[in-house]
Structure prediction request, 273 residues.
Amino acid sequence: MDYVNGTINFLSSIFGMFFSIIAIYNVLTFTCENQCKEYKKLLIFQFSGGFLSSITQLILKIQVFVIHEKQITKIRFCYLIIYATLCPILITISNWFCFIYDIPESLSQWVEASNIKYSIFRKKVYGISGKINSDEALPAYFSVPLYFGINYILVFVHYIKYKKHMQKFTTVMSDMTKKINKEFMRISILQCTVPLLVSFFPILYFIVSLFLLPQLFVATFGTHLIQILSFIPIANVTLFIFLPSKSRKKFICFLKKIKDKIICKNFTITKYR
Prediction:
């Protein structure tokens, strides 16, 4: 199982970095008027974030497990709070209330008894934990529907406002501008909703199974959940690359250039042997 998780993390990171670079290349090579420059900057910022996210995933290799608890020391709790304050506000709040226990000293016995084969479980392994069914964990669970609710509301409110604004100029738009605007609106709504949908159902299953359906809960599902969330940058850049016809053509041309260079290089090597 350890090799499976490692392979998933590696492939997800590599594809995330590759498609992010392709998306940034497509944006930089777009020729547009002055009013499109700010949109190009926004896309470059978005895909650069996806590239950095893929690198972070490759380096950290975050995994989540369900284990027994032991009271954490005050010093380590202070270290945890210092670390948590460097994270996004949502994660900080969740860590503050939830992660109040240390991984038990009997971790090796627990791993052996549970027949879990993971190379990360060594004698000097360190981690943080919290009681799933405790009152301290409630802020984290309530923050999940709050987070998704706010995101869905913002997405659809801004989409409707933008659509109404652009409808005012339909009479003066050229056919090409209408086509570009249509593709932009389609990409925008998909880039906003697809990541939310991809992450919403796994997170919902994770929380419901913890409380209501413990027989369906998998101890390592938290790790798979992080892998699913790490897939979001790939989903965004993939939508941008393959949905617009212009971007799709640029991607195909880019692959053809790489293929031609490889063939030309192999031919040169063969010729001079």
About this structure: The CA atoms of residues 148 and 196 lie 7 Å apart. The chain has three domains: 1-66+219-273, 68-131, 132-216.
